[in-house]
UniProtKB/TrEMBL annotation:
Enzyme Commission identifier(s): 2.1.1.200
PANTHER family: TRNA (CYTIDINE_URIDINE-2'-O-)-METHYLTRANSFERASE TRMJ, TRNA/RRNA METHYLTRANSFERASE
UniProt lineage: Bacteria, Pseudomonadati, Thermodesulfobacteriota, Desulfobacteria, Desulfobacterales
Subcellular location: Cytoplasm
Family according to the record: Belongs to the class IV-like SAM-binding methyltransferase superfamily. RNA methyltransferase TrmH family.
Domain of life the protein comes from: Bacteria
Enzyme class: transferase
Gene Ontology terms for molecular function: RNA binding; tRNA (cytidine(32)-2'-O)-methyltransferase activity; tRNA (cytidine(32)/uridine(32)-2'-O)-methyltransferase activity
Name the UniProt record assigns to this protein: tRNA (cytidine/uridine-2'-O-)-methyltransferase TrmJ
Cellular component annotations (GO), alphabetically ordered: cytosol
Subunit structure: Homodimer.
Amino acid sequence: MCQKIRMENVAIVLHDTRIPENIGAAARAAANMGVGQLIVSAPRHLDMERVLKVATHSASGLVKAMKVCSTLPEALGGFNWIVGTTARLGGTRRVNSSPADLAAKLIPMSSENRVAVLFGPEDRGLTNEDLQLCHELVNIPTAGFSSLNLAQAVMVMCYELFQARTRAPECHIPRLACRHELENMYEELKETFARIHYINHENPEHRLDKARNFLSRYQLRAREVSIIRGLCRQVVRYGSQCYKDGAAAGAAGSPKNQETG
C-alpha cells in the first residue's frame, strides 16, 4: 500500500509579498495540488479583489480561508516542521533537500505534524533572519537562471509534494515541538548564555545561531524542548545561589566582621 503526504497538514506560507496577483496565482497552484492551508505574512499590499481575480473560482475557497499575519514568527508559530525555499546557495544557506527528496521525507512527518513551506518576497527571497526559523532549506534546481516567479516556485513544490509516494514502510515520526515552543526555548538559551557569560554581549546572536544550527539537526519533541528549558532554569538558579553563597562567605570573612566576632 502506497503512503502519501497528508496534504491537509501542509501549508504554503508567503512572506512579505509585494504583488497581490502573485498571492492569487500561488493560491491557485496550491489548490490544484490539494494543499490544506495558505498563510500570508506581512504582505506589502493585500488587495483581495486582485488576489481573487487571479486565483479564479477553483482557489477562491483557499483564499477566503487564508490566514493573514503581521509577522513571520506569528505565521509559523503553530508549525512543527518548517521548510524554507531559497534560490541563493552557499555561506550559511546549507540546502539539505531537493524538492523530490524533501517530499519523500515529509511523508511520515506529515502524519502527526503540521508542515509549512515558506516562500519569501518576489524581489529578494527570504533573508538569513527569516531562514533561522526554518528546520531545513530546499532549492529548486534550474538550468542557470535561478530566479523563478513566486507562483511557479509554489507550483513546483506543491506538485512534488502531491506526487510523493512510498511503498517502503516509513518510521513513525511523533508530534514535534512547534515553532512557538522552539522560539521560547531559544530565548531561554539566549538569556542563560548571557547570565553565564557564554556569549558576547555585543553580538549575542552569533553564538545563538550556532546553537540553532546544532539543534535544528534534530527532530526535537515538545518534552525534549521542556527538558532543555528546565536545564537552563536550573543553571541560572545554581549560578545565582553560588553567587549568594560566595557573597555571604566574603562578608563573613571580612576584617570588620572578624573584629566584631
